[in-house]
Sequence to fold (698 residues):
Amino acid sequence: MTHPDDTPAEIVVKRFLYVNRKAPHGTIYALEELEMVLIAAMFEQDVHLAFLDDGVFQIKKNQKPAELALKDFSKTYGALEDYGVEKIYVEKESIEERGLTPDDFIIPTTVLRRDDMSALMESMDVVLTA
Amino acid sequence: MTHPDDTPAEIVVKRFLYVNRKAPHGTIYALEELEMVLIAAMFEQDVHLAFLDDGVFQIKKNQKPAELALKDFSKTYGALEDYGVEKIYVEKESIEERGLTPDDFIIPTTVLRRDDMSALMESMDVVLTA
Amino acid sequence: MLHLVNKSPFERTNLQACLNRAVPGSAILLMEDAVYASLRGTSQSDLVAGAVNAYDFFVLAPDLAIRGLDASQVLQGVEPVDYGGFVDLTIDRQTVQSWL
Amino acid sequence: MLHLVNKSPFERTNLQACLNRAVPGSAILLMEDAVYASLRGTSQSDLVAGAVNAYDFFVLAPDLAIRGLDASQVLQGVEPVDYGGFVDLTIDRQTVQSWL
Amino acid sequence: MDYVIMVNEGPYNHQASDSAYHFATHALDKGHSIRRIFFYYDGVLNGTKFSAPQSDDRNIVKRWAALAEDHPVDLAICVAAGLRRGITDDSLADGFRITGLGEFIESCIDAERTVVFGD
Amino acid sequence: MDYVIMVNEGPYNHQASDSAYHFATHALDKGHSIRRIFFYYDGVLNGTKFSAPQSDDRNIVKRWAALAEDHPVDLAICVAAGLRRGITDDSLADGFRITGLGEFIESCIDAERTVVFGD
Fold:
């Protein structure tokens, strides 16, 4: 007979990638994907966030959603670090195409060239997109 | 005092354009726009239908939506004539870009060059799009 | 005619579809995610920049603000309007066509 | 990796977004409105035709059929599969990424 | 000026319903009238009485109802689109009314301007 | 093989929910298991009990429920996304269950494959 304290269940740690490709506010996907990531952070998993294509607009500074009575969730990205989500990547080509630089973002990010973004995606166990 | 029979209420006849730009089946817009046009046909109005961009796929022959248990509405386009809707236009450039010809369509249509489609749109009183 | 365009030019072809058909002199209002098409210095700026002489371009200012953008970043020839200006455009230009 | 693409290449940039990142050798399944990208003789045919050597392309045959299309119209190098084949691809290729 | 407004998308999921609301309030503020706001396609979901958004968010359903209380605006949900999506008398929020597409076409004939908000 | 399936769009409006259904039935026919189908974003609308499509159309809500009756598949609706859109215990169709995102993440950890259907 096994002793539960001595033989803890094996913890599966998977590499999760949350892909953000859509602009905020025009649709709800950015907001609800962020809500999903905050929950996901509570599990002992290897969480990665990628912002590419129009998704890079999600973390643009100075968003003022209150001007149209919209929910202000852009500040919540700043809480990701407190939740232990620190692997946050933006794609260099996506931000350049949109005239942005990393200084435009409300959170610190790791800038990846497109090839490295490809490699990151390829290394994942679970990829969730909205 | 006026006699109703002698002075019928002035009937307003507006030029309505129903614009179909979306492919069928992937989303419901084509189906529900068609349902709207069938109702609109019952009013004494000047009804026009335009198929452009991916909307030209709506009237492609040989659709078999039953293969995925989807509602088969492509036959309903054939009923438009019975409802008195005869001003049906497709854009030449849109069908050429998609490798189609008027023979691919389940209903007779008037093929307009892009410039003429522009002029048609510009001449409308009400434009409804889905 | 007032044309309404509400999709990002990076993601969808709606703005190009509108430009392909809008008669010169028409008004085009960029709103919702289409405000990104009004920005200077992007890979899609030429879409609007190449058409400002043919059309009267407007951008919905509150839709810029909620996205962290402002009028100073907008291409020359694109006029920011608020919702009151949007309403006025529907009156001046008579028919409204939405490029959904 | 199995990449799922479900948007028309005439309307949205999803397929290009996928091609920009998919590692050579990946499988790409064209489904729903993305089956239009598998057709020969359209203005968007080059997207897939130019990539058939780098990727294993598949198209969901029932999604062709409901749209009035069939395998004879599909570009060389694109393999039609049914839903059973789709399921098998998710097993063979391990991780699935949807380009929504 | 007398308007009819068409809303083609559900609340929250797309900005279309917000844009239509802000357009409507500004038109009314300028002294214009809106004879009808017609909800079609997923737009019918604007009329569900069960929506309960988070406390720091706008309540889109109640906001429409309040607009129709303050102004003579008819909030009309398409019956056919609503049946598909579960918007029926059993789920309809106060302030909304279920009706047919014919009433929408009528209002396009009668109104001076038709404006469509969608995806 | 053991799957979790995510459905991000409402029924009828997008094909996503149909595609997910056909994928699920074919996976089950091949002897695979599906531990959970999680409905998020507008996907929660797949679980409304008030949907009443036309008689010549498929009934997407009932079709999901029948699938879960014939197989051990958990039809899970996200509580937060549901509240926004009016999918609550008062509108929930038989066969569905309301739960949190945590259970979805758990099933992604436990299942061998995760497949997302959306717009």
Summary: The two ends of chain D are 16 Å apart (CA to CA). Chain D has a mean pLDDT of 98. Chain D has one domain: 2-99.
